[in-house]
Amino acid sequence: MQPFYSVVVPVYNEAGNITRLHTELCAIMDGLTKPYEIIYINDGSTDESAEELATLAPATVIDFNRNYGQATALDAGFKHATGETVISLDGDGQNDPADIPRLLAELESRELDVVAGWRKERKDTDRIKVLTRIGRFLRRYLIRDTVHDTGCTLRVYRQQAVKSLDLQGEMHRYILALLRWKGFRIDELVVTDRPRVHGVSKYGISKAVRGFIDLVFIWFIHKYSQRPLHIFGYVSLLVFAVGALFLLYAAYQKLFFGFPINRSGHFLLGAFSLLGAMVMFSFGVVIDLLIKIHLNNSPYEKRYYIRRIMRNEQDTNTATHV
Question: CA 265 from chain center: how many Å?
């Protein structure tokens, strides 16, 4: 049967957590009385996660050939999801599947496009809490993102919302901002955050830095994606104005004090500033044209590679390789 719900679960080195989570998920989804599919994305795990995933049914397992990151894993899961409503949660077991019915009820009763989980009482270490607060401040300052918990993967989406996404890098933390900019209706609901039982958290300084870089990218895309020439135009005009001031000062020194132009540092700075402004403006024109060509004509470049897709059927207890 065509699934009504698609559950997407990214997994990276979560051996010991997966079977328990799958049992809880199946119990909750069975209680919803509508057909569903569960999609696990094995993001290049190096522990026994792949072997554990192979024993789960019913489930579809997308096996990456290496680790690409959570955003890419979610992107693959969203693209393979066929349900009208898509549910995402982490594979570490800290998201409680028992919260899913409440999120779905909120989605339907308020006719929203996305309902995101808010882990109001976090069970993370102090280091992760500090990094989270810093990230929240930067998001609010740069992209005016008022969501309390952008790191919570437990969410429910309308299909059209997830199909509008194209994720990579650390962009999973900015899914809600991207969807809000596209006009989708979003709200939050407090959910349970459970302590990790097995394994260690994958969030650290390196991910926080990559997340900040992606945040700057998101800011640029939101502000200048339609006309990237604008930002280059602003900067080139500023550089041009500074160069013009240097040249005027050099001319002033020549006219009133007889200072030779060829020995004036202000003249050289002004000349280089004007040249730099022209180059920068031309560069903006080229970038503007390249983006238009890419959006209209360029083929899709594959950003990740799938080793295999395995569908584990509950009735036959067999695995089908695709």
Answer: 47
Q: What is the dihedral of CA 91, 96, 102, 105, to 10 degrees?
A: 20
CA distances 107 to 97, 110, 191, Å, are 16, 6, 14
CA-based angle 284:287:293, to the nearest 5?
145
Which token pair is 73? 């894993």
Residue with tokens 């004036």: 264
How many other C-beta atoms lie within 10 A of the C-beta of residue 144?
A: 11
pLDDT at 207 over 90: no
From its phi and psi, is residue 45 left (phi > 0), alpha (psi between -120 and 50) or beta? beta
322, two tokens: 């695709």
Return the SS3 of 82: coil
224-279 per-position pLDDT tens digit: 655 666 667 777 888 888 888 988 888 888 888 878 777 778 788 888 888 888 88
User: Please, are residues 110 and 72 in contact by the beta-carbon 8 Å criterion?
Assistant: no
